[in-house]
Amino acid sequence: MEENNVVEEVTTTTEVVEEVTEQKNNKNFTRRPKKEFSKKTREPQKKLLEEKVISITRVTKVTKGGRHFRFAATMVVGDGKGLVGIGTGKSMEVPEAIKKGIQAANKNLVKVSIADGRTIYHEQTGKCGRAKVLLKPAKEGTGIIAGGAARAVLEIAGIKDIVSKSLGANTKVNVAKATLEALQSQRTAEHVAELRGKKREEL
């Protein structure tokens, strides 16, 4: 009986092999299509905020072991539509200091009001330390009449027509912060009317 079982198992396996070979020889036999693995190409993300360098300075720390040099980078970031921020980063290398400065500026973003999408509403003065910056609105087509750190902040903020004057110290970091303070102090007509408890037309 055991010999008969063995013979039957052998015959069944040979029959299976014959069926497979017949299917391979048959032209109508269709194989399952192989799975195609497509590599996903990552598109580079567009930067939402523009970046500008205000100043890069070398900082020296004197210790018992000698002098240790680091770099301090002050950056300004913004979207050109009223969103702007200033930040400072320090590191042993310039690229790393710039990267840290951008991260700090992103944490300090503020929204400033822009009149007609090009200038400011009224004359304003900003102060930071010994730096003092005067901003005045200008007619369309005037452009940005400013220099150095003040110009970088105004361009990133999205202002197109303005006149500025530095009245105090010329320290770049303080001038930039004074410019941002002057922009933040702008009051719209709606804000003034709300403070006075009136409508805009009544002003």
Shape field: globular
CA radius of gyration is 35 Å
- Could you state the order of secondary-structure elements as H and E? HEEEHEEEEHEHH
Tally the beta strands.
8
Instruction: Indicate the mean pLDDT.
Output: 81
Low-confidence stretches: 2-11
Helical segment tally?
Answer: 5
Strand order of the largest sheet: 1-2-3-4
**Share of residues in strands:** 25-35%
CATH architectural category of the domain at 50-189: 2-Layer Sandwich
What is the C-level CATH assignment of the domain at 50-189? Alpha Beta
Secondary-structure content class: alpha+beta
CATH topology of the domain at 50-189: Ribosomal Protein S5, domain 2
What is the CA-CA span between the terminal residues?
A: 113 Å
* Helix content class: 25-40%
Q: What profile does the largest beta sheet have?
A: 4 strands, antiparallel
Key features?
203 residues; globular; 8 strands; four-stranded mixed β-sheet; single chain; Ribosomal Protein S5, domain 2; alpha+beta
